[in-house]
Amino acid sequence: MSSELKILLVDDDKIMLFLHEMFLKKTGVLCETVLCYNGQEALDFLDTQQSTQTTFLVLLDINMPVMNGWEFLSSIRDRPHLPPVHIVMVSSATEQSERERAFSFTHVIDYQAKPLTIDSCKKIIGAEQVRGFFDDIVFD
Length: 140
Fold this sequence. Notes:
Layout: E1 4-10, H1 14-27, E2 32-36, H2 39-47, E3 54-60, H3 69-77, E4 85-91, H4 96-103, E5 108-113, H5 118-125
Parallel strand pairs: 1-2, 1-3, 3-4, 4-5
Helix pairs in contact: 1-5, 2-3
């Protein structure tokens, strides 16, 4: 497993970014967090990452200007050079068809309703793909 985890919060709503970052911290997550306001910003950031020692956990909104979540997912699928990326879709869309579409992308490990809560943050960091980065967090 890579030695470092960075979290990208991708949402065009600054209040959601603030809330999600706060809930992650309240859950005990102390990783470096990068805020992006659309999928293109997140993609541009990932394209600059050369370290093979870093894994990225991306909390991705679907409906955003410039590049939405679906376009972001399609774009990273075409970039095998990227470091490991695990994506949690965070959306107000609760339809089963949206969930199924999200899980059709191999990078997607979870789908959570907006806004995140402490409980949903605990579920995210308990996901098999990233759990090892959070061994020091005690779940009650």
